Amino acid sequence: MARNDRSGRSRRTVLKAGAGTGIGLAAGAVAGTVPARAQTRGGAPEAAAGEGGYLVGRGIADATGEIAEVGLMGYGRFDQQAEGLHTRLRARSFVVVDRASGSRVLLCVVDSPMIFESVHQAVLRELQARFGELYTHRNVMLTATHTHAGPGGCSHHVLYNLTTFGFHEKTFQAVVDGIVESAERAHADLAPSQLVLTHTELTDVSANRSRAAFERNKADIKRYFPDAIDPLSTLLRVERDGEAVGAVNWFPVHGTSMSGDNRYVSADNKGCAAHHWEREVAGVDYLADGPPAFVSAFAQTNSGDMSPNTDLQPPTTPADFARTRQSGLRQYEAAAGQLTDRGREMTGPVDARLVYVDLSDVVVRPEFTGDGLSHRTSSPCIGAAMAAGSVEDGPAFPGFAEGENPFWDAVSDSLVYEASPALKEAQAPKGIFVPVGEINKVWPWVQEQVPVQLVRIGRLYLIGIPGEVTIGAGYRLRTAVAEAVGAELEDVLVAGYANSYIHYVTTPEEYDAQHYEGGSTLFGRWQLPALTQTAVELADALREGREVPLGPVAPDLSKGQLALQPGVVLDAPPLLKRFGQVQVQPLETYAAGQRVEVVFVGAHPGNDLHRGGTFLEVQRLADGDWRTVADDGDWSTRFRWQRDGIAASKVTVTWDVPEGTTPGSYRVRYHGEAKPLIGKIESFSGTSAIFRVR
User: Fold this and answer.
1) CB-based contacts of 370: which residues, under 8 Å, 6+ apart?
2) pLDDT per residue over 186-244, tens digit each?
3) Where are the domains of the chain?
4) CATH 3.30.1380.10 fits 582-693, yes or no
5) Confidence of residue 498 (pLDDT cuts 50, 70, 90)
6) In terms of pLDDT, which residue wins out, 612 or 9?
7) Is 307 a catalytic residue?
8) Positive or negative CA dihedral for 469, 472, 474, 476?
9) Residue 616 and residue 619: Cα distance in Å, rounded?
10) Which residues contact 665 (CB under 8 A, 6 or more apart)?
11) Could you say which of 307, 360, 378, 412 is catalytic?
């Protein structure tokens, strides 16, 4: 039954028009059914004795947090406070079970700026409550797409909550719930599947934003990346009965297509690629019940120095919307094009290892340092170059520069390093701006006990690093693990932004340049060798079938979080107005390519995040029913919130009419919640006048 103006959630009409380039490329490869099988705890199919191959499950869930008056995370700007929603943020999970051994892994790719340890811990607690020991530290990998247009305030470490004015419980819980819900759906979706691994190259989508630092690398790295970019696009596709029903793509490029001046929550280029494949090509209805026909996740690898701004100029808004879509569609086209590649059908075990390392005190053995000597990491320090930001994607604080910062360099050389030769051995030539390791002794600013993970799915190996790894650093990690496990280099990938967050990981040579990435390599010049040493130890344990102790697990810091930004106090409409009333009606007629705009008397969207739902609907009249053709998760819509006076709100809904839109009668609906001074929050809706699309 189609949704009308009074009904609840149901399957809606899918508007495929205007899907852009590549429509139909995957159209014949997105159907699939889930065979009925015996069930185990949680609704998962049970593998029959002696069966080979894999069980694979797929799941999508909404992980969108607050969309108004919360700082967006990534650019480090206090003024970048959210004012609305462009596209919803989603968690996409895949469970892979080796039917021979029963061993499994859970991969989750989240449209999120980062995965913080706070989220990692909460998700694992929830999964354990639901599934016991099926999903643990060892076999769960959570990764972020690193959009710079996602709401922040999710960390339990102070540094990452500065620009959000503290911790935001609603956003944190939305991210956790979205991840867990997607994992539950993937678990319930488990069915016999084939996995096929393919590789291709994708150029003209990324540029090295720190070329001078990259050129300091040794000859083998520069020879492997002659254009100073990593063009490898890897696709793991899921097939059932010969039809593709899911895919995970790994390609390194930053989530900075949306600018630092943008105020809309957005999934940026990787979220655009996934949305296009699922919604505009495969016709997935995110609001419908039941498993989707297709799930596509676009994950990060070693994207630390890979900018989507190929002209190496920070984007501006609103031009950034087109640039985001262009980058997303190119990533989609490269991934979807691999559906026709026979590739390599995956066989072999599924396995994983994870260990926590106190990265502030690692003794790195000579075989990993590159100079034949043993070295030690140190407590974390922020460099002055980090405060400068990346000028190619969006500079941060004035008065700082990438490279030399004479004042901070002089302070470090004459005072800090003179007082601590051990710190100098680990951190020089960094001009230390903030010795956060010392601040950690008083209040937890950054994480020091960090997880390093290695996941194997057949011939594919994923090195889970909780940071932003440059392509040179990624090459060092990949080659070391590939040698340890006997794999081909292209089948070993860095899974960046995994499980926690420690900022950047550079090679020692790149570190010496002290560009933004080097200044953000917190634990010093030997941080990458320390991580490489750990990854090889995990590879050895995986190869030998040996378990490893979990190590010094990061402490639970959930108690006593600071929340400095007050919540919604009161919603009140302007004098003689009511909630949901239309202040600006649409025009009578529109053509494809034109923008419909409707302004409502609104309320603060923080009262209810509508996770799993929508703030808006664009509806078409068909057979006497109003059927939803677009909502707030679609690329064609935008939802803007503005404060109107003290307690009133103005909500502007826009819809860019896609090419190929069915002519007919349309209307726009807005759903909100208002908070009175006394009493419960109340829901309301508003509906525009009817307009025609010709």
Assistant:
1) 218, 508, 529
2) 999 999 999 999 999 999 999 999 999 999 999 999 999 999 999 999 999 999 999 99
3) 31-43+50-356+448-544, 582-693
4) no
5) very high
6) 612
7) yes
8) negative
9) 10
10) 620, 621, 690, 691, 692
11) 307
